[in-house]
Design a protein that fits this description.
The complex is a heterodimer of chains A (113) and B (115).
Chain A (H helix, E strand, L loop, with lengths): L2 E5 L2 E4 L5 E8 L5 E7 L5 E9 L2 E4 L6 E6 L2 E6 L8 E8 L8 E2 L3 E5 L1
Parallel strand pairs in A: 2-11
Antiparallel strand pairs in A: 1-3, 3-8, 4-5, 4-9, 5-6, 7-8, 9-10, 9-11
Chain B lengths: L3 E2 L4 E5 L4 E7 L6 E7 L6 E7 L4 E4 L2 E6 L4 E6 L8 E10 L5 E5 L3 E6 L1
Parallel strand pairs in B: 2-11
Antiparallel strand pairs in B: 1-3, 3-8, 4-5, 4-9, 6-7, 7-8, 9-10, 9-11
The chains are: A mainly beta (113), B mainly beta (115).
């Protein structure tokens, strides 16, 4: 069966520090991969999605970037965090064939101080 | 621009009664619709979906209805149980510009089922 791992579960970072959140998927090949952010009291905002290695689509201009160095690895990064980057970050995957549900990791709670 | 809207931030229902969660969308390119359930500090879990070629899909206590002309979908839970208390997200999907499928989520509705 497929599993998705996302870490760390919580992270407290000072303003201006770098960020690296990692997500890996097991049990499937060539998945579509996604990064979402849920701000407090709000819905899920799609940040990035990827249909293959090295292919990244950015949905909103922001202080963050994403990379997919391997088929089942998706990384969310920032060179300098802002206070507004605080939130709950979720990684998800879906099958590449047609419209398929997304399957989410347990998320990372990021607090910027 | 909110392409997927859930106008009710919360809903309270008595155990055993029907819960109806509503969702509206604006983009006519959406052709696949989903409902997710989310508990605190966890990722959303997929609940049920419907293709735009259908108007109803049922799975146990959960039924999703789609009205394409009104760009409206709803999730019915009957009978509601206390364990159904969670945040429910409506989502709509369409093919993205670079391939793959892009899914847009609503803001969520928090359901409280009272025992």
């Amino acid at each position: 069966s497929q599993t998705i791992h996302q870490w760390p579960a919580t992270l407290v970072q000072p303003v201006g520090s770098p960020l690296s959140l990692e997500c890996t998927v097991e049990g499937t090949s060539n998945p579509n991969l996604y990064w979402y952010r849920q701000a407090a009291g709000r819905g899920l905002q799609l940040l990035f999605y990827s249909v293959g290695i090295g292919q990244i689509s950015s949905e909103v201009p922001q202080n963050l970037s994403a990379s997919r160095p391997q088929d089942r690895q998706f990384i969310l990064s920032s060179k300098k965090l802002l206070l507004s980057d605080s939130g709950f970050y979720l990684c998800a995957w879906s099958e590449v064939r047609g419209n398929q549900p997304q399957h989410f990791g347990d998320g990372t709670r990021l607090s910027i101080l | 621009d909110q392409q997927v809207k859930q106008n009710s931030p919360s809903l309270s229902v008595q155990e055993g009664r029907i819960s109806i969660l509503n969702c509206d969308y604006t983009n006519s390119m959406f052709d696949y619709f989903l409902w997710y359930k989310k508990y605190p500090a966890e990722g959303p879990t997929f609940l049920i979906s419907i293709s735009s070629i259908k108007d109803k899909n049922e799975d146990g206590r959960f039924t999703v209805f789609l009205n394409k002309s009104a760009k409206h979908l709803s999730l019915h839970i009957v009978p509601s149980q206390p364990g159904d208390s969670a945040v429910y997200f409506c989502a709509a999907s369409a093919r993205g510009n670079t391939g793959g499928f892009k899914t847009i989520f609503g803001a969520g509705t928090r359901l409280f089922v009272k025992a």
